[in-house]
Structures are given as C-alpha cells and as structure tokens.
Specification:
264 residues, Serine Threonine Protein Phosphatase 5, Tetratricopeptide repeat, 15 helices, 2 domains, mainly alpha, elongated
C-alpha cells in the first residue's frame, strides 16, 4: 500500500481551489481532509472525506481506502478499503488502482486474483505510477523461471519450425502455450503481430500472447509489448507502458530493448 498523494500536498491548494469549485464542493474541502490526514487527525479526515467520497470525488474515495486499509480512526477493513479503492480506480485514479492491485495480489478484502492485480498495475503504470512500476516489476521477477532459459519442449518445436514443418510447429506451440510455456506464448505473439506462416495478422492476439509471456519474465514477450505500445499497434499508444516493458526486457538482457529505451 502506498500513500502517495500526501507527497504532493504542497502543490495542491491552488489546484483544489479550482476543482472543488467546479465540482460543487466547498472550496478547500478535499484539502482540509488531506491536511487533517497529514496531521494524523484521522477522525476529522474521515468526517471530511466521507461525504465527498459518497458524492463520487475520486481523491476522497482513495483516502477512504487508505483509512480503512490501515484502520486510521476506524476499525481496519480490507473489504471496505477495496470498495473505496475500486470506486476511485474506476474513475482513473492511478494511486487507487495500484493499491487495489496490491489487495488483489495478496487476497486482502477480495478474492486473490493475479490477473486483476496485473491489469490494475498496468492501468496505473500507463499513468506512470512509480509504485505500480515497482510492485509489478517485483511480481514479474518473482514469477520468472530460470532467467531466460528456454524449455526443452520449446526448443524441440523450434527445430521443427526451422526444418520447414511450420504447421506442425505452430500447433505444438499452441499446445505448449496452454501448458503455460512462456516462450511458446511469445513466439505466437511474434507470428500474430506480423501475420506470417498462415496466421492472420492480429494485434489483439499478439498483445494477449506477449502479455502472457511477459508477466512470466520472457524478455521476448516484454520487448514485443514495448513495440506494440510504443507504436500504438491495435492499442492507444502509451509511452509509459512502452518504457516499462522495454525496461523489463532490457533488464533481462535484451539489447534491442536497451536501444529502444533511448527513444523514450
């Protein structure tokens, strides 16, 4: 869990004096709540944030999540924390997205769901959340197997491919990817992104296979995602996501990714 917005307090008074007027709340209401929170007057912060959060203010919803997750001035409740984080996350608050992702990752207040956790981390990373970058990087590293060593099964199929038995190789890679073989997933991503060897070009299929490979630590899959997001192929271009995936791939020894990082 990260309490990130507090670090921005000095920058917020003018911003909130404008935004609170637009949203219909009294001027300084959110700032008052943040000031109370910083002063560790959690009861006062709760009294300020509660009505604002109920009226759909994402920053107040985020702080309600923080308050419930930590039991600040109220009984700790991961369930309530998740509910408030989700409300803020649905409005695009990257700090709430990152904290909600962590709850899903650890099964606190919600049923553990690594896919949801990864998706939420990526949403936060798309807005350059440093906490989400750190969390997902660690998750991927913990989930990686034997560096970049490829499985014997993958290498056997690659030999079929090199011998011109393309259809058989592709069928075998599809079988292996169902078993979770990350290198087979990355190879399918490469084939779909270019639409070669009898497969129709599909950026969405490439995105899916590259992602499955990338979160298991495949430098190949990570590089492919950097290319997709860096070029906006089938997705909205996002330099933050491109940079993240190129960095992951570079850290895993991919020199092409290291060169690509120089462009971001």
């Amino acid at each position: 869990m990260r309490i990130y917005k507090i670090a921005k307090l000095i920058l917020l008074p003018l911003f909130f004096s404008v935004t609170m007027t637009i949203s219909g709340f009294a001027q300084g209401s959110v700032q008052d709540g943040m000031d109370a929170f910083k002063a560790e007057d959690y009861q006062k912060a709760l009294e300020i944030f509660q009505p604002l959060a109920t009226n759909n203010d994402p920053t107040s919803q985020y702080f309600m999540g923080i308050i419930y997750e930590n039991g600040y001035g109220i009984d700790k409740s991961y369930e309530n924390a998740a509910l408030w984080y989700e409300k803020a996350a649905d409005q695009g608050d990257e700090d709430a997205q990152a904290n909600l992702a962590e709850l899903y990752q650890n099964g606190k207040g919600v049923k553990q769901d690594m896919n949801k956790a990864i998706l939420l981390y990526l949403k936060a990373i798309s807005k350059n959340s440093k906490y989400a970058i750190s969390q997902l990087s660690t998750l991927i590293k913990d989930n990686s197997q034997n560096g970049q060593e490829k499985s014997n099964a993958f290498l056997m199929v690659a030999e079929l491919y090199r011998d011109g038995k393309v259809a058989e190789a592709i069928d075998s890679w599809k079988y292996l990817e169902e078993k979770g073989d990350r290198d087979s997933q990355a190879m399918l991503g490469e084939l779909y992104i270019s639409g070669q060897d009898g497969l129709d070009q599909s950026y969405q299929d490439a995105l899916m296979w590259y992602t499955n490979a990338a979160v298991q630590g495949s430098a190949h899959g990570q590089y492919g995602l950097g290319v997709i997001f860096g070029n906006g192929w089938g997705v909205e271009r996002n330099d933050n996501l491109a940079r993240f995936w190129f960095q992951q791939s570079s850290d895993n020894g991919n020199k092409q990714a290291t060169e690509a990082l120089k462009l971001f």
